[in-house]
Design a protein that fits this description.
The chain has about 575 residues and is α/β, with parallel strands linked by helices. The longest helix is centred in the C-terminal third of the chain and has 20 residues, at about 555-575. One of its GO terms (biological process) is purine ribonucleoside salvage.
Length: about 575
C-alpha cells in the first residue's frame, strides 16, 4: 500500500482523534509532509521510538503509541502468569502529549490484563529505571524525546533489570507491534475502567523517597560538603523539564544550601520557550544560567536535559564561564571517584569502568593509572547496563562508573541508565573538592591533561532530513566501506573496525573477530593513536562523525583535531 493509500485510510477512519484529523487536512496538499508521515512506520533505535508529533504511521500519536504498547503487551502475553503479573512502570516528561501517551500505554496494557504503575506527575528517566527495579515490575515505559526540539516525543521500553530493553526482546516486541497492523483496532481501556479493575496504580512520593535515599549514597566526602560545599554558589537549570524537584531535593539532602534555579527555565514548558534545542551539549542553553551566574557570582552552573538523564556544566574562570565537554565532565568525575576510593582503601582489585567506543581515551588512561579495567561497549546506554548485569551475575568486575561522551553518566547502578540527578550531586561535590584547594573544575581538567596528555575530541552530526534521508545515510556508510580511505589528513589508517560485519582488519591484512553485537558503526585507528568513528544516529536522522586525538600540548591537539575534521568532510562531500 502506498503512502497516499495509507493517508486516505486515516482520512476515512471515523473514530480518528479530532486534532489528528485537522493535521491530515493541513497536509492534504503537501506531498512531502504526507510522504514523510505515511511512507514507513517508526523504527526502534538505540533509545526506543522517537519522532515528530502528528498524524501518520511515521509520527508520534496515540495510535502509534498504542501499537508500540500492543507489541509489549503481546510479548508479555507469552511469558508466565507470574512474570506478566509483575506489571509495567510508566513515567513521562514535560512534552506535549506525554501524559496522554502514558495513559494510552496503561490503557493498552490493561486491555491485556497487565497492571501498570503510573507516576502521578512527570518524573525523570533515571527514576523510571529505578522504579522498575524498586517495584520489581517486568518492564518500564518512559514517554520522552529527551533533548530533541519541541516538535518531538518518544517512547522507551525498559527491561526487568531497569536497563533499556535488550535487542533480542526489543526485536520481538517490534515484530508483535508490526503484527498489530490495524492501528485503529487496538483496544485501550480508559483511566476510569483501569482504576475500577485495579489495573492501574498511581505512584509518586513512595518511589521518590526510595530513589532519594539511594542518591544520598552517591556523595563521598560529607565533611568536604559541610565545610566547603554548603557555601559554594551553584546555579541549576532543568531546561523546562523533569529535573527541577529531584535536583533540588538531592542537592539539599547532601548539604548544598547555596543554589539558585534559573527561574525562566524552571517552568515545565513543552514549548521550551528559552531554547530551541533543550540539550546541555549546546552552549546556547547556558545563556540564562550564565546571566544569573554573573549576577550572583556563582561558582558552578549545571543544566540537565528535559528528562534529566544528561548533564552539562560551566564553571567560573576569571570573569567568564567555561563550558566543559561531556568527555571532560566524565574524566573529572572518574578521577575523583577513583582517587577518593583509593584514599579510603575501598578501591576494589576487580574494579571496572564502562564507556562507549566513541568516548574519550583520557578516561582509559585514568583507569589504567589506578589499576582499573576499562571496558568499551557500543553506543547506547543499554550496553553499559548489560555490562553491569553481567558483572553482578558473574562477579567478574565491580562497577565503578559508566559514561558516554554525549553528556550521560552513571555513578551507582541502582539505576541502569544515565542519571543526571546522581551526576548533579556528585559534580557539585567534585567542584567543592577543587574549590577547597582554591581551584575550579576547569583547573581539574587541566591537571588531568598535564598528567595524562592533551586529549581532544569532537562530534559532528550531519543531518539527512526527508523521505530519502535513510537512503542517503545508508549510501554514505556504503561509501566509507567500499571506497576504503588509506589515510586521513596524511596519517595512515592502521586498523578498521567494522561493527556491522564484526571484523577488525589491520593494514598488514590481519583480521580479528569483534565480540560486540552487530551494529552499523565504522571505527578507524590511525598510526598516531587518533581514532575516527562513523555511525548513523539511533534517535535522529543524522550520521555522526567522532574524532579523538592526543598531543603533548593543547594547541597541537586542537590542530590535529581540525585537520582530521577537514579530511573527513572532504571525503564525505565527494559522496
Amino acid at each position: 500500500m502506498s503512502y497516499r493509500d495509507t493517508y486516505q485510510q486515516w482520512v476515512d477512519e471515523p473514530t480518528l482523534d479530532p486534532e489528528l484529523k485537522a493535521d491530515l487536512k493541513n497536509m492534504a496538499d503537501d506531498e512531502t509532509t504526507k510522504e514523510q508521515a505515511f511512507a514507513a512506520p517508526m523504527a526502534f533505535g538505540t533509545a526506543g521510538m522517537r519522532g515528530v508529533l502528528g498524524a501518520g504511521i511515521g509520527r508520534m500519536n496515540i495510535y502509534t503509541v498504542r501499537q508500540a504498547t500492543e507489541g509489549l503487551a503481546r510479548f508479555m502475553d507469552t511469558l508466565s502468569d507470574e512474570t506478566k503479573a509483575r506489571g509495567v512502570a510508566i513515567s513521562y516528561d514535560s512534552r506535549y502529549m506525554s501524559q496522554e501517551f502514558a495513559y494510552e500505554s496503561a490503557g493498552v496494557l490493561g486491555a491485556h490484563g497487565i497492571k501498570s504503575y503510573v507516576f502521578d506527575q512527570l518524573r525523570p528517566t533515571p527514576e523510571l529505571s529505578f522504579a522498575v527495579r524498586h517495584l520489581k515490575t517486568y518492564a518500564g515505559i518512559m514517554i520522552t524525546a529527551s533533548h530533541n526540539p519541541k516538535q518531538y516525543n518518544g517512547y522507551k521500553i525498559y527491561g526487568p533489570d531497569g536497563g533499556q530493553m535488550p535487542p533480542e526482546e526489543s526485536d520481538k516486541i517490534t515484530k508483535y507491534a508490526r503484527s498489530a497492523a490495524d492501528l485503529f483496532a487496538i483496544k485501550s481501556l480508559n483511566i476510569h475502567v483501569l482504576r475500577a479493575k485495579k489495573l492501574m496504580q498511581p505512584i509518586g512520593e513512595d518511589v521518590d523517597e526510595a530513589y532519594y535515599a539511594e542518591v544520598a549514597t552517591v556523595t563521598i566526602n560529607h565533611d568536604l560538603i559541610n565545610k566547603v560545599g554548603k557555601n559554594m554558589s551553584l546555579v541549576y537549570s532543568p531546561l523546562h523539564g523533569t529535573g527541577r524537584i529531584p535536583a533540588q531535593m538531592v542537592l539539599r539532602n547532601a548539604g548544598f544550601e547555596n543554589f539558585r534555579l534559573v527561574p525562566e527555565q524552571s517552568i515545565a514548558d513543552p514549548e521550551f520557550a528559552t531554547t530551541p534545542f533543550p540539550n546541555p551539549e549546546f552552549a546556547q542553553v547556558f545563556d540564562l544560567p550564565i546571566a544569573l551566574g554573573k549576577k550572583i557570582g556563582a561558582d558552578v552552573l549545571i543544566a540537565t536535559d528535559p528528562d534529566a538523564d544528561r548533564l552539562g556544566t560551566a564553571v567560573k574562570v576569571g570573569d567568564h564561564y567555561q563550558l566543559l565537554t561531556g568527555n571532560q565532565i566524565a574524566s573529572v568525575l572518574l578521577h575523583y571517584i577513583l582517587e577518593a576510593r583509593k584514599q579510603a582503601g575501598t578501591l576494589p582489585k576487580n574494579g571496572a569502568v564502562v564507556k562507549s567506543i566513541v568516548s574519550t581515551e583520557l578516561a582509559t588512561a585514568i583507569a589504567k593509572d589506578y589499576g582499573v579495567d576499562m571496558i568499551n561497549v557500543l553506543t547506547g546506554f543499554k550496553f553499559i547496563g548489560d555490562q553491569i548485569k553481567h558483572f553482578q551475575a558473574t562477579g567478574e568486575h565491580e562497577f565503578l562508573f559508566g559514561f558516554e561522551e554525549s553528556y550521560g553518566y552513571l555513578i551507582k547502578p541502582f539505576v541502569r541508565d544515565k542519571d543526571a540527578i546522581q551526576s548533579t550531586v556528585l559534580l557539585a561535590e567534585v567542584a567543592a573538592y577543587y574549590q577547597s584547594q582554591g581551584k575550579t573544575l576547569w583547573d581539574g581538567v587541566q591537571e588531568l591533561y598535564k598528567k595524562y596528555g592533551y586529549y581532544a575530541e569532537k562530534t559532528v552530526g550531519v543531518d539527512f532530513e526527508g523521505v530519502d534521508g535513510q537512503k542517503q545515510m545508508a549510501n554514505l556508510m556504503t561509501k566509507f566501506r567500499e571506497e576504503q580511505p588509506a589515510d586521513f589528513a596524511g596519517v595512515k589508517i592502521t586498523k578498521v573496525e567494522d561493527f556491522l560485519s564484526q571484523e577488525a582488519k589491520s593494514a598488514d591484512g590481519t583480521v580479528e573477530k569483534l565480540t560486540m553485537p552487530s551494529s552499523n558503526v565504522l571505527k578507524y585507528i590511525l598510526a598516531d593513536g587518533t581514532w575516527i568513528a562513523i555511525r548513523p544516529s539511533g534517535t535522529e536522522p543524522k550520521v555522526k562523525f567522532y574524532v579523538g586525538t592526543k598531543a603533548d600540548t593543547e594547541a597541537k591537539a586542537q590542530e590535529k583535531l581540525d585537520a582530521f575534521e577537514k579530511a573527513l568532510n572532504d571525503f564525505r562531500e565527494e559522496a
